[in-house]
Amino acid sequence: MTLGDVIKEYRKEQEISLRDFALLSGLSHTYISALEKNIDPRTNKPIAPTIDTLKAVAHAICIEPDDLLKILDNEQPIEFNSTDNLKIEQNLQNENTNEQKQTMKFGDVEVTLSKNGQITNDDFDEAMSFLLQEKIKNKENKS
After folding, report:
1. Nearest 5°: phi and psi at 53?
2. pTM for the full model?
3. Per residue of the chain (143 residues), what is the pLDDT tens digit?
4. Alpha-carbon distance 117 to 91, whole Å?
5. Order of all β-strands in the sheet with 109-116
6. How many helices (H) does the chain have, and how many strands (E)?
7. How far is C-alpha 78 from the geometric centre of its chain's CA atoms?
8. Is the separation of the CB atoms in 47 and 38 below 8 Å?
9. Is 116 helix (H, G, I), strand (E, B) or coil?
């Protein structure tokens, strides 16, 4: 499910207009429309919302940003500001122990997955969700 799908579903359930949702979220109605269509009008490619957009939508639909991230599918791109500096070291495997490590750094927050056997998509999604939530908390604390 994309962010646009979540917004459309919420608006339908709550019977609110696109403009009313824009007021709830603090985002422009044209941007909400683009999110729902999942097309960036500048590039005609799938839209990649920012962390601030995810936070605004989560607030508007009365859920935690982390819960919103769990609803989104793996196909939903997310734009990271250049200051966020997301870095991922992919699957560094120790051949002697079959241990795999994956480190994700996002600004000043770092998460390392370490597991015997294969690191699964669910493991990665859980760590990414935690990482994004911590980054959002850090932004809120700095505000």
Report:
1. -65, -45
2. 0.59
3. 899 999 999 999 999 999 999 999 999 999 999 999 999 888 898 888 888 898 899 999 999 887 888 888 777 777 765 444 444 444 444 455 566 666 666 555 666 666 666 666 666 667 767 767 776 666 666 65
4. 11
5. 86-94, 99-106, 109-116
6. 6, 3
7. 6
8. yes
9. strand
